[in-house]
Each structure stands twice: as structure tokens, then as C-alpha cells.
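Issue 218. Parser rejects a valid record. Input:
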Amino acid sequence: MEMKIVFPGNKKVDAIYNDFRISTDQPAFGGGDGTAPAPFDLFLASLGTCAGIYVLGFCQQRSLPTEGIELTQRMDFDPVRRMISKVTLEINVPPTFPEKYHDALIKSASLCAVKKHMEEPPEFDIHTTVRDTAAA
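Output the parser choked on:
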């Protein structure tokens, strides 16, 4: 697995992965143009959307309607550490959604691969290499 990170200008940093370009930018107050989410925003969105795909899959496997279901993600920020200290995911279901599946929705959302990677983070190896410009 490989992802290329490129710098299209100003404070923009894009990732190219599996034929997709995932664009990021910094907000105007951070010197960017505000044309795309900041990288940390995408990280936070990956948590909620990953949980969401598991909730969606659970419902689709049981032919349960997904209309009216949405997840609300809240983040508590620790100003001392300057980091998110808690992420709360609330699965909002309509009154017609069968109550017998509420706990199963929570279990499904908890299977999120992004969450699992945060709980057991990978090892990081960050280094530089000199690119061969003749081969480019």
C-alpha cells in the first residue's frame, strides 16, 4: 500500500491514493485558502464515516431502513494537552427503528477500523530519502 503526498500550492497538501486525489487546505486564519478540509478535519471525519459504514452495513444486511438514521460525533478538547480527549458517537435513529437493534448498532459502530487503529496504533517510521531526479 502506498500513498503519494503532494503540495499543489500555498497551504494545500493533497494525498493521491487508489486513483483518488484527497485535497486538504488550511483555513484562512491559518494562512490557507480554506478550499478544502484541514488534514485533522479529515482524520476526525474518518472516525465518524467509518463507524457510519458499519452501521449502514448492519442495517443493509438485515434490510432495515436507514432513512432518518444519522450519527452525531462530538469531540472534547483538552486545552492543556491541545488534543482531543474524548470522542462521542451518538447514533440517532427514528422512533420507528426497532429497539431490539439499538445495542447491535453500537456494537457495529465499535467495529470501525479507524477506531481500532487508534486503540492499537501502528509503528511510525519517518525518514528522508534523496529522490533520483534522473528517473523522474
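Fixed in the parser; the record now loads. The longest strand covers residues 83-92.
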